[in-house]
From TrEMBL:
Protein's name in the database: CheY-like chemotaxis protein
List of residues that carry 4-aspartylphosphate: D54
InterPro entries linked to this entry: CheY-like_superfamily (IPR011006), Sig_transdc_resp-reg_receiver (IPR001789), WalR-like (IPR039420)
Source organism of this protein record: Deinococcus humi
Gene3D superfamilies in alphabetical order: 3.40.50.2300
Keyword DNA-binding: yes
UniProt key word Secreted: no
Amino acid sequence: MMRVLLIEDHPADVLLLQASLELIGLEWTLDDAPTFAEAARRWPGGNFGMLVLDLNLPDGHGLELLARALELASGTPVVVLSGLANREVAAQAVGLGARAYVIKGLDAAEELQQIVAQFA
């Protein structure tokens, strides 16, 4: 079973994603960190198979934060999970190296489940 690290600072978004995943049948373990700094502390030795990143955190935002996440994950798939439905930002994120750009909401869990299945 793959371990996925979700970097998300809004507890309601974490709970929504966890509840949605339970409804569709979770095939991976979701850990969460509220800041990039916390995720960076937990990443080494965490044996994570994927990193899922919100682009708006207390200690970073936007594509600069994605660049930091790609460096941290170094070869591990990084997926952006965002509340911003912006095709230009999504294209830039994928261009920088994100494997996907997923919009937060009820469908996010299904999309993430499909992405994880590709890399499991």
